[in-house]
Amino acid sequence: MTERQSSVLLEEETTAGSYFVSNYPPYRYWGPDHVPAVHEALARPPAPGTPLGLYHHIPFCRKRCHFCYFKVYTDKVASDVETYLDATIAELELYARQTFIGGRKPLFIYFGGGTPSFISTRQLTRLVEGMKRVLPWDEAEEVAFECEPGTLTEGKLTAIKELGMTRISLGIENFNDEILQLNGRAHLSKEIDRAYSFARSIGFPQINIDLIAGMMGETEENWRDCVRRVIEMAPECVTVYQMEVPYNTTIFKEMKVFGQTVAPVANWKTKRAWVRYAFAELERAGYTVTSAYTAVKDPARTKFVYRDALWRGADMVGLGVASFSHVGGTHFQNEHDWGPYLDCVNRGELPVFRALTPTHDERFIREFVLQMKLGRVEREYFARKFGADPVERFAEPLGKLRDEGFSEIGPGHIVLNRDGLLQVDRLLHEFFLPEHRE
Predict the structure, then answer these.
(1) Which of 40, 97, 148, 198 has the greatest count of CB atoms below 10 A from its CB?
(2) Domain annotation for the chain: domains and CATH numbers
(3) What is the per-residue pLDDT across 40-56, written as a single tens digit (0 to 9) for each?
(4) Strands 315-319 and 167-173
């Protein structure tokens, strides 16, 4: 193997750390000293044509999965939930007074977690009605809602649909009860079929199913069975992630106790092979692969507005503990603990904890690396928005990817082939500035 190959190809064993690239510059460069820039961004009118989105973090779960690295709580009672939901509405009211709104209404709304479907129908109705009073949703193209199968009933799903959700995402991850239990999932396989049948019967316009390749205990035979079952269910969208073990997970804590450096999950070669198999089977069933993680039944009708808008620089207000926002070119995150978050909102203050305002070049890099995860980048988009051709700006890393057989450069676009797409998160570091490649 050449030196160049060793710098580009993945290390095979799964070790602890975050693999998935969700933003740029990396979060570790954000800090409290940049928070004043947030207030400056909020006081400016929006750039013409910039869409607005809302993200609402619902941090409650029945159980904490062993691979989960999000801010979640499993010990809150109904009164805690209601206090929190009221605080998020109050937070939205604080944002609605700011100049950056500029008369805009949300193009997309996303409820993530945690487990949004954990809260009761009454609590959800109260939350949604409160949010709509502050910023109406009548122009929203998408309202997405994450669900854990075991928290769903036909009545709750009916309420979710009647409240305006257009896309639900079922966090199935696997169909094998032993694997689900080994990885700390709260639901079992019997709850999957029941929840999906309910969702289909009431006519949700878009259902997404999540799978994770390489969970603890996964086997080749079982993975193929999971793919078969998803295809039989025929959801509009399938999202397939490759298992990783971030530092703040139960798996990593157990690795430290036993002095392990290699995580007890499938290695990267195996995970790539399993995702390759899933995509190939989905394509045989009529699906189209539209990113490093997703396959959709009908690309003309099945969109993911939240993802596509964010990856093209949309403004987004993140509500709730530890939520991330992006406004006017500045990124920021809320207080990441329960008490400080509620205290800020109760004082009538925005609960911003840390922030960063990227440079023009860093914004260029951010949108480029995120859009590379779609497998195809349009050169004209970047020339028009950033005043430079990405083929020229990223000549060296693109040359490496091309020489290793991962990509092709056409007159109007850059394309990653399947080999490149399956390991895109690792390859993206080639495009980072030197100070961000640690």
Answers:
(1) 148
(2) 1-25+359-432 (1.10.10.920), 27-309 (3.80.30.20)
(3) 999 999 999 999 999 99
(4) unpaired
